[in-house]
Amino acid sequence: MIRLTQLMQSIDARFTQLGDKLEGKQMRFYPSLVGPLLFLLMGIAGFLIMPFQVKRQEGMATTARTFPSLLLWVIVGGAILLLLQEIVKIIRKQPIQVVYLDLLTEVKAIVILALLVLYALLIPVLGFIITSVLFGIGMLVFFRIRKWNYYVIVVFSALAIGLLFQVVLNVRLP
Amino acid sequence: MKKAVVMVLIALCMMGTVSAAGQAESNVDSWPSEPVTVVCPWAVGGVADVVNRKTATYGMEVLGQPILATNELGAGGNVALTNFLNNEANSHNLIFGAEGAFSIAPNVDGADAILFTYDDYIPIINLYSAVFVLTADSSLGIDDLESLQSYAKNNRMKIAVNGIAGSEAFLAKALAKDLGINLELVSYNGANLALDAAAKGETALAISHQSQARGSVEAGILTPVVVFDDKTVNNEVYKNIKGVGEYGYTGFFRNRCFVLARKGTDQKIIDKVREAYMEILQKDDVVELFNTLMIEYDPLSLEAIDAHIDAVTEIVKANS
Amino acid sequence: MDLFLSGLQQFFSLSSFLFMNVGLLLGLVFGAIPGLTVILCIVLFLPFTYTMGPIDSFMFLLGIYCAGGYGGSISAILINTPGTPHATATMADGYALTKQGKSKKALNVALQASTFGGVASAITLLFFAPQVAKFAQKMGTPEYFLVCLFGLTVIAGVSSNSLVKGMISGAVGLFISTIGLDPMTGSTRFIFKNINLYSGFDLVICLIGLFALSEVLAKSKKSNQITISSLEEVKQEKGHITAKEYKRMAFPAFFSAVVGIIIGVIPGTGASMASFVSYDRVRQMSKHKDEFGKGSIEGITAAETANNAVTGATLIPLLTMGIPGDGVAAIMLGALMINGLTPGPNLFVKHGSTMYAIMIGLIFVNLFMFLQGKTLTKYFARVVSIPVSILTPIIVIFCFAGAFSVNNSLFDVKVTLAFAVLAYVFSKLGFSTIPVLLGLVLGAITEENFRRSLILSDGSWSIFVQSPISIAFITVIALTVFLIVFSKIRGNNRSV
After folding, report:
1. Which of left, alpha, beta for B74 (phi over 0: left; psi -120 to 50: alpha)?
2. Chains contacting chain B through 3 or more C-beta pairs under 8 A
């Protein structure tokens, strides 16, 4: 028990260290350039996979491809328009939008996402209720909660939700 | 110490295998040893779902175990049928299926995503069958195949169907071919909207289940033309409507819903479930429900069920 | 009149009131908890109605349906996560009020607006169903398309910072809605041979990812981890609405009730479209345009009135023609059929008193919704004092359980995660996700009705101008687009 607490504390200290390291570190980010570029690529990718994913049809006023193609054009066209606006700004030496991304925040978002993915992947292995309990604990650790009553509440809620669905609502949770 | 642990583990494993083998033996005779789950792969509130829930209430009485009716949706039932393959033979899970999954899905676009075939299942019983009906916009004066044929000679006709690759669509195509007329299919999202289209005059014709067209037929907005069966239908709503088969055509089928088990399930279990359902289907309130929903109980032999799937497949292939 | 009285008599029974209130409570809870949706609630509890009579089962289902319409706004207001798709329009203003410590006021406005919309709709159903049904019968495929097109103009309204960005977001949503089987030709689109993509994505599944789980990801930011108010602060706020505020709510309420009723009559559209359209129109017409998105009472009123005004109107095509306008109505159709009530023009002739009982019941459903909401508001409001670290995991667990239960599918759980990532990336790039949701809501019906129109007309575009209703819609759309472009140009001139 004591060793466990020690282990927890050392892990906790590691997190603090890591957090301190990342704290205040920022990444320069140009959403007004990256966004349109990303959508441009998405649109082009859409056009590229279209022949493999949607059959060609003939002799009709509109086909299965009409709508998706139209929408891809809107995406690509919009993206190009936004890019041009930015390029004009750069040429005119006007300032473009800069966002400073908090590195710590982004790393944390990835951690939450990892927890969510892990949760989804472990459900078929461990079953819904056990995975939910583990996830609840994981989230509390992530929030760096030390109060034991928080853990009790979350674990209890996870159990209650699982049982509610399974027993009361007759859902066949995995 | 380590040795002892290994020994215990081996012993446990052996006991596990022995008991598992023993279970497999007794499985068949003691089946069902736990509640039986019957999956309806279609929407909650639909005909199949209602029948499933209703029949499930008799599980304890006829099987000695409760029947749990559930739904698993997606891809017109094909997701549930795919997931059902995870069951082993003699499992306590059963599933509904119909010609849509086995005769139509493998022969239309998207077939490459279908990972199951009819042979992965064993039919236990056909729970119910429903006869499709062709209805026409009343203002057109079409009330049988002759008048349809002569009308179609002088007019371009459109027919509203529920989905372009559904049972109704293939019945429409087969009929057009048999009559030598031109029917242009218009796909609607659901039989109710298809019927409404014909009622509004957007299309001349619609195909649906009898129960779905009932309201409009009773109100005189739609006129029944023909039923897709081998004999005449005569009930309080559809009075003496001739079957396509009586005109000598073969391009018709009923919508049949089957209860299926996983391939390899013991014949004893199949028989047990089949008998249980046959008993349930005789119950007064089940009979009444079938009347309300305008569906029929017409038990088929297992060979006849196979033949039904083959026959529908032929029609679909001929009209794809 | 006889039918009315006998209907009244049939309705007034203890069991009607009992089932109505059970339904209302369930709808409220399922609507309010992110991840649990109205449709899920109905799906889970429908089997219970199979043994009830028609009136009891309808009271139960209508209770869930109506309370769900209000319930979704509770979580939208309190924790910036819409419980139902149509509460998304309420979210911006509702949550803004919560941040100002006025969550009870926001909840009260939403409740009163919902009740008003619901009652207006129920009265329309009771007294004007035949007339409305006649109007509805005049609308066909081309008119449906034009209504959807009008709905799409809302995208311009909800993309505040940049019209082009809004259009891209909307196009992404519309594009995602094309995944699956093409409704008109049956050919597959972007399914990558995966059977789970065959019928596309369920709207509620997308909603959970786009708004609930993405909000969880946003908890990575420190400022989002702070609990909004303490329990004391919540208890102190009275949430009283002043006479002046009522005056400002009046026009949005009446206007949105009409919009909700019209949209409710049209199959396939539903509450989400109604709330967004009303919100957008009311904002355009408001004298306090700047307040919208920052805690506007008018905005909440518009969105909430409209989405409950849909409830009674949806029953009109359902009962008179057997056409279910949305998923819930489709399930109600089943409930009618089981009880031997065949929807259609003859339903009122054959089962007049039962129908009147149901229609009268709907008014009472709304009144009881108000009472239940009123009683429960003060407890709901306490949610904002629950520590974020406790609330977040619980919401995720609900979301996962809810996403799984809709179709009994683990694949759907993964879909929600994908949508959460999408929403997160969008927010980082400065793109709003609301147009994506609008695209998802409108995508399938817009495309379907457009292409079906052209099939019906053998390819001729003249089908879109053939009826007076179509021409009226086209005029409204043209006017709207003109206004958007005009205000855009004026805005640009001002900024330069």
Report:
1. left
2. A, C
**Burial of residue C167 (number of CB atoms within 10 Å: 0-12, 13-18, 19+):** buried
> B 8-37 residues with CB below 8 A of A?
37
Q: How far apart are CA C127 and CA B108, in angstroms?
A: 47
pLDDT of residue C209: 94
pLDDT value for C337? 80
At the fourth CATH level, the homologous superfamily of domain B132-247 is Periplasmic binding protein-like II (3.40.190.10)
HEC assignment per residue over C32-67: HCCCCCHHHHHHHHHHHHCCCCHHHHHHHHHHHHHH
Mean pLDDT within B68-88: 85
What's residue C401's pLDDT? 94
pLDDT band at A27 (very low <50, low <70, confident <90, very high): confident
Contacts with C191 from chain B: Cβ below 8 Å: 110, 113
**C216 vs A contacts (CB less than 8 Å):** 112, 116
Contact C178 A67 (CB under 8 A): yes
| Residue ranges for chain C with pLDDT beneath 50 | 495-496
Domain boundaries defined on chain B = 34-129+255-319, 132-247
**Token pair 């509440």 in the structure block, residue:** A153
HSE-CB at C136 with a 13 A cutoff on CA atoms is 30
C428 CB neighbour count, 10 Å cutoff? 16
Q: What is the DSSP letter of B92?
A: S
| Span A5-28, average pLDDT | 80
Flag whether pLDDT at A46 surpasses 60.
Answer: yes
Establish how many alpha carbons lie within 13 A of residue A154's alpha carbon, considering only the half-sphere containing its beta carbon: 31
Burial of A4 (0-12, 13-18, 19+ CB in 10 A): exposed
Q: From A24, B112, A144, B53, select the one nearest C52 (Cα to Cα).
A: B53
What tokens appear for C438 in the block?
A: 């609008």
Collect all residues of chain A within an 8 Å Cβ-Cβ radius of residue B186: none
Positions of E strands within chain B: 36-40, 67-71, 93-98, 121-130, 132-137, 157-162, 183-188, 205-209, 222-227, 255-262
Q: How is domain B34-129+255-319 classified at the CATH fold level?
A: D-Maltodextrin-Binding Protein; domain 2 (3.40.190)
Q: Which residue has the higher pLDDT, A22 or B118?
A: B118
